[in-house]
Each structure stands twice: as C-alpha cells, then as structure tokens.
Design goal:
A hairpin with a 5-residue loop joins strand 8 and strand 9. The chain contains six helices and twelve strands. The chain has a twelve-stranded mixed beta sheet, with helices on both faces. By secondary structure, it is of the alpha+beta class. The protein folds into two domains: 108 residues, 3-Layer(aba) Sandwich (Aminopeptidase); 139 residues, Aminopeptidase (3-Layer(aba) Sandwich), CATH 3.40.630. It is elongated and about 65 Å long.
C-alpha cells in the first residue's frame, strides 16, 4: 500500500482530526478531539507539530503519530504521545510504516532516548513496539479515590507553594518520569514542597486542581507525589489536606501515570484507592 506521510505543519486541521478521531475509534480509552482540545494538548504537553505525522492513502488521512522532544537528564528524549490507525486500515502494515517513519524522524533530530506508554491490555501494540527496539521498563497507573478532611491532630508539616518550573531547583526533584508527569507538561498546574518542623525536606507534589461550577474544589490530579521518608497516614493526610486546600467536602483524587511501585501510590492502593487504567512504560535507546 502506498502511504504518503506529511508533518502536521503541512496538514489541514480537518485531516489531522480525522486521522486522530478515526484512528482511535474502538480504542481502550476514548480520546476524541476537537480543534480546540487538540491544539490545547499540543501546547500543554509540549508536543511538536513539525515532528508529528499524518499518513495518507491518496487524499484520505488514515493514521497519525504525535511526538514531542525535550532534554531529560541531559539526553534528547522523544515521546510518542499517541499512535492511531483508521479501523479499515488496521492489520495491513500501516502501524509498522508509522513506526519506521517516526524512528527516522527521531534519528534525524538526534534523539538519544525514545519513550511511550501503552495500555497494558494492548498486547498487539506492545509487541509492535518491542519489534522496533522498545523495552518495558515500568508499569504506571491511574488511580482514583476520595479524600475527606481528617479529625485528628493537625499536621506540623511546613508547606511551600512554588511554580512547577521551580521544581528542578530542588536536588530531590525527579526529572526522569513519564512525559505527562514532567513539570514541562504541567505548567498550568501547581507545586508544593513539604518540610518537617525542623525544616528538613519531606517531599513534594506536582498537581492540578479542578473546580466545579459552584466554585468548590471537585478533584485534584496528582502528576508527581514524592516522599523522602516512609509514607505514614499522618504524612499522607497532611499532604492531601494541603493540595486539597483543606476542603471540607470530599475531594476526588486521581494519580496520573505514576509508577505502580511508587511508595505513595502503593500506600493509596492499600487504603482503598482503585486502579482505573494500567499502562506499561516503554523505552528505546539509540
């Protein structure tokens, strides 16, 4: 099959959205986009129109890959933020062509490390990525739960609110985490650093708050929650109270692409939180 690849900068938005929305039909998670939501995602997550591609069969857009590149831990790192193929073209080698074209772009850009996440149940996609040199390095989860104000002793923890872009100034900030959890992808969010009563660091959180139409805090989305000490109920409750702005109503808490082995995530799961989505984190080194 003849496939012509064009960078997103060369495509009409109608063709981009057709490739995206039809390419993810029947996918494990519905991710239909409008022009506004698509461009918002490109900007918020630091994706590149010039490094992302749409595949065409004649004039018909049939496939898409969106990519981003940034420097992480001193290495030029790429992220595949979504690979989709229109249903009637699946199983015809289009995915392989997409991967080959994407890896060619990475090599032209001098990429040293390529990353992506795949839904754990999507075995076909995982096998494809492994064929092209990606390896599973971790399992990451979306976990959901509720936080309600505790009636116990008030926390003596000291909280410092900072901008997300200030996190790298702290020696304990973890830079090498999944793309959507890096501070560059959460610029519109918030960050807090926690110290004990002796000004010794306890950890930090990168998060975003979501408010409802009545001005009440409805949900807190956690991108990173890192502790430098053993996670206890008192410590966790102090952190959740702080990022929930001491809300008196129950607040939904959701973690995004956090490592399943992370002590904070394990603590939440042991205390009633549920896994909503499980993905594998895959890495290819050039």
């Amino acid at each position: 099959m003849d496939i012509i690849f064009k960078r997103l900068t060369e495509c009409k938005i109608e063709d981009i959205l057709t490739a995206w929305n039809r390419g993810f039909e029947g996918y494990f998670v519905k991710i239909e986009m409008t022009p506004d939501s698509f461009f918002q995602r490109i900007v918020n997550e630091g994706l590149s129109m010039g490094l992302s591609i749409v595949g065409f069969a004649g004039e018909e857009p049939i496939a898409i890959v969106v990519n981003g590149v940034r420097r992480i831990d001193g290495k030029k790192t790429a992220w595949n933020g979504g690979t989709g193929v229109v249903p009637e073209y699946r199983g015809k080698g289009v995915s392989r062509r997409l991967m080959e074209e994407t890896l060619k772009i990475y090599q032209q850009e001098g990429v040293e490390v390529a990353t992506l996440e795949a839904i754990k149940e999507n075995e076909r996609a995982i096998r494809l990525y492994e064929k092209y040199g990606y390896e599973i390095v971790d399992t990451v989860v979306f976990a959901n739960g509720k936080w309600a104000a505790a009636r116990g002793e008030a926390s003596s923890m000291k909280v410092k609110s900072i901008r997300p872009d200030q996190l790298p100034l702290y020696s304990f900030y973890k830079e090498n985490v999944p793309w959507q959890c890096q501070w560059q992808s959460v610029k519109a969010g918030e960050a807090q650093v926690f110290n004990d009563s002796n000004d010794q660091p306890l950890g930090y959180c990168l998060f975003r708050r979501v408010w409802n139409g009545q001005g009440e805090l409805e949900r807190v989305i956690i991108y990173q929650l890192e502790f430098l000490r053993e996670v206890t109920s008192h410590l966790m409750d102090g952190v959740l109270a702080s990022i929930s702005d001491s809300a008196t109503n129950q607040v939904g808490i959701m973690t995004v692409n956090n490592s399943a082995t992370d002590p904070a995530v394990q603590f939440l799961l042991e205390n009633g939180y549920q896994i909503a989505t499980e993905q594998v984190l895959m890495v290819k080194k050039f």
